Amino acid sequence: MALLPCKNCGHKISEFAEFCPKCKVSTKPEETAIVVKEDKVEDSKQSCIEPSKATLVNSSKKKNRAIILWSVLGAVALIFVLYGLDVALNSGYDTSGNTNSISNDYENGLGDEVDSYSRSQPNNQNDRTSKPVVQAPSEEDIRREMYRENLGAYVTLEVNNYGQKVLGGIKNLEVTITNNMEYSINSAIVQIDYYKMNDKLYTTKYVQFGSISANHRLTKSAPETEWGAYVRCSIKSLDIPELNQ
Questions:
Q1: What would the DSSP string read from start to end of 24-81?
Q2: Which candidate in 36, 166, 187, 188 could, as Cys together with 239 as Cys, close a disulfide (CB 3.0–4.6 Å)?
Q3: Distance (Å, rounded) from C-alpha 215 to C-alpha 179?
Q4: Which ranges of the chain have pLDDT less than 50?
């Protein structure tokens, strides 16, 4: 590769370099550069002329479309106006006899029908007085509803520390019902389920309770069994007359 001096600054550069790295002057002949510039000028002139022609064509097309569109809209609007005038003329009132026909109809019986309808309507004031008055619930009703909704909190069931027999079975089992309400309990039934060590149900027994006064408790002994390791108890029924009202 041969090194040639730059024509501008004399710095040695490669013969294949397009410009001097020191002064940045092109190494190509001036004639070639002039030809390229002329081509670029001619290309720019053509590119400026051609879009102007396309713009004129597009603008003329848009104007033609706008004229056609406005013509169609004007024709449609004219049709609607003519149709509306025709409907208005055909369905117009007959000013020569309308008022007379209305008054004649009223005299021929329509007025009587209106009067009869007004006479047939009930008297609103009398209807209001005849309706039963809904009374607010009393304190007793509110108290009863409270007991009904929270019965499990006011009537509780307890089991004592019962014993187990040597060879299996339950002994000395007692169940207690506590009545924390202001009403007495006429009767109650408690269900007792006896379970074996393998959590299988062995047998079921029932204990009948009599009257339990308000804010009192009652304890009953439960039957003993030959088998069983533990029990589960629940209240199956309660008879409370005050809550049945």
A1: --B-S-HHHHHHHHHHHHHHHHHHHHHHHHHHHHHHHHHHHHHHHHHHHHHHHHHHHH
A2: 187
A3: 5
A4: 31-42, 44-49, 51, 93-103, 105-107, 110-111, 114, 116-118
In order of their start, the domains of the chain are 154-244 (2.60.40.10)
Residue type at 171?
K
What pLDDT score was predicted for residue 200?
94
Rounded Cα distance, 52 and 58, in Å: 10
Contact 202, 235 (CB under 8 A): no
Look at residue 208 in the predicted model and tell me its pLDDT.
96
